[in-house]
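note to self — DONT lose this again. spent like an hour looking for the file last time. sequence + predicted structure for the chain T wanted, 373 res
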Amino acid sequence: MGLFDHLLRDIRSVVDRDGVDKAIPPLDGALSPNDRLDTAVAIGEPLAGVDDVIPAGDGGLYVSVGRRVLKLSGEDFSTRAVVTEFEDDAGGLALHPDGRLLVCVAGRGLAAVDPAKPTPRWCEAADGSALSGLLSVTAAPDGRIYAVEGSTGRRPAEWRHDLMEKRSNGRLIACGVNLDNPQVLLRDLPYPCGVTVSSDGKALWLSESWAHRLSRFALDGSGLGAREVIAGNMPGYPARLHPDGRGGLLLGVFARRTHLIEFVLKEDDFRQEMMATIPPDHWVAPALVGGSDCLEPMQIGAVKALGIQKPWAPPRSYGLLVHLDAEGEPTDSLHSRAGGRFHGVTSACATNRGVFIAARGAGRLLLYSGDLR
């Protein structure tokens, strides 16, 4: 970049200091910081790599952990049975109306697991391109299946690379009841991470992490309607969406945005050198968990004082679950702040026992039984 380009960039940053989708919005109103997520109860032993959690329909839970999908049952969910195991990591989960379990599998595609049959049915490609990076899946009341691929040709574990390379080539996929006739409905998306269909089957909700955006699309017999942006500039990176059982949604936010990361995303030369010379865990990038390595990058204000990391410090990692009403407006939130225990929330589901939360950064499945408006 020449001197003139640098000068133009600096002038633009002053004139349009808070340009569209550039300024990080404050955490206020329903998103005001609190410590309620840290009051949640950890269920059983740690689950390293826990990623998604959904109700099993019989009072139990399905949980994706590493390469396995577990079913947790019993009064205290201490019974853990392996439902299925894959050759690579299991991610997003959904129950099909006919009882099959839908599983996003890294590097392979979408699996439909029928309890009565030993071999899953697979959807492995769409429009001639392999589905190696599926993140979330949902099924409409009519049986049609929708899934999102965060980044075409890139595995979910490489999400940090995707952000730092400023890629935007995710896809929304739709297929039939038997995983047949897969079609790409949307492409060139900035890391779509969550997808769900409303209980009446009339709307599809989509979260896009790198755009910090939540959108809604009408569903009808002719396909996908026009995009309606519900939230266009969120304070964090949205993850999966699951229904709350009351017409609203539970949205995991796996990391907070920070001014330091936003700055690095504008500095192409620095970012490219950082990626070429520094291990990914030490990049100036979002993290699911932090604070345990002295080599981690820090923003001014994040240094511990008297051995305590201040909760208002710029976070290396963060825990955040947001409750949305039927129109997508936030009504309540659970936080685990900079010095908290349960960071990296990738998913949550509502049951009659409370809200179960997958805190991937902490490697724990949590139960929050308090009020969530």
